[in-house]
Amino acid sequence: MESPKQSQILDKVRQSPSQKVKVAVTDIDGVLRGKYLHKDKFFSAVEGGFGFCNVVFGWDMADVVYDNASYTGWHTGYPDAEVRLDLSTYREIPWDNKTPFFLGHFVEKENHPLLICPRQLLRSIIKKSESKGFLPMAGLEFEWFNFRESPHSLEDKGHIQPEPLTPGMFGYSILRAGYERDYFNAIMDEMEEFNVPIEGLHTETGPGVYEAAIAVGDALTAADRAILFKSGTKEIAYRYGIIPSFMAKWNSQLPGCSGHIHQSLWEIGDKKNLFYDPNDPQKMSKLFKHYLAGQMHCLPDVLPMLAPNVNSYKRLVEGLWAPTRINWAVDNRTVAFRVIPGSPKSTRLETRTAGADINPYLAVAAAIATGL
Fold first, then answer.
1. Domain around 110
2. Residue 129: inside a domain, yes or no?
3. Which pLDDT belongs to residue 269?
4. Which residue, 86, 116, 146, sits at the end of a domain?
5. Could you tell me if 142 and 70 lie in one domain?
6. How many CB atoms lie within 10 A of CB 280?
7. At what angle are helices 4-15 and 39-48 packed, to 10 degrees?
8. Nearest to residue 258, comparing CAs of 218, 213, 219?
9. Which of 49, 61, 279, 354 could pair with 29 as two cysteines, CB 3.0-4.6 Å apart?
10. How many domains does the chain have?
11. pLDDT tens digits, residue range 280-305?
12. How many alpha carbons fall within 13 Å on the CB side of residue 77?
């Protein structure tokens, strides 16, 4: 049965001048895979789900199939898996004629979560957190390089020596941001329209590097926004003849690209930050300290979820703004875990090991699960 809010969302889709709806799921690598559905097919999918080839869990980001995957492969014939749409993820795509858009996740028989699905894994971790009385909140930051290239020019170069948008090292530069004002403003403004609000956007130290801080939300919303930010930035950039790269380490002589995860646990219902203790010198509650200890203890075990690619480990080297040890400190940007003391609202933990190449669902799930 539809809730009043769901009914309002479906009414908006009916009233949309577009006769199509865009839907997407996320693969293991954090790449959005999706399609357009005719409105009639969309409303049918809302009622009973729809099939989506499960090869998205049997190949890599370049569509090269794995030869050792047990879930799916040539031995299964790559059948459909059922997708359920999450109506709460409704938004309109400002750069695609305001086409309605929804995220979905995979289910098994009788609507049970398919836990190989990254979004379902995060949902299951959130459910466990809430069963303990904790509402996990999160916000992600991404750094990325921007190149004056196109897919064809990169292919012609063999993906070697792309041309950075601007030369030299110039973090927090108002001047460099102004050089590409239209692109810079489009990211801020169109992401806001896309319900992916950005708290801050600036140039980082490095040729053509930007950093965006995405607004905080509950953990699932934060991961949804992070996925959509990376994909949306690439779509916006294409209009300006720019190719963004979220590789963790593009150039061995330059700092890598991070994907820092800010998080805190809140009391369900009372909107109280449980990480904050006004009587502690660092404003850290006992719960916060236990949460931090859990992440430190488990970091080696979940590192593949925070550093998922071979290239990820090229970022984790000394002297280039990336952590290399299991350590923590207060407001220190050289450690793996940065404790940020502040107000009852802002006290939080920043997990700094993750790079920009993360799958946000897996990385946020790993952070929360190990903290708990």
1. 4-116
2. no
3. 86
4. 116
5. no
6. 14
7. 160
8. 213
9. 61
10. 2
11. 999 999 999 999 999 999 999 999 99
12. 2
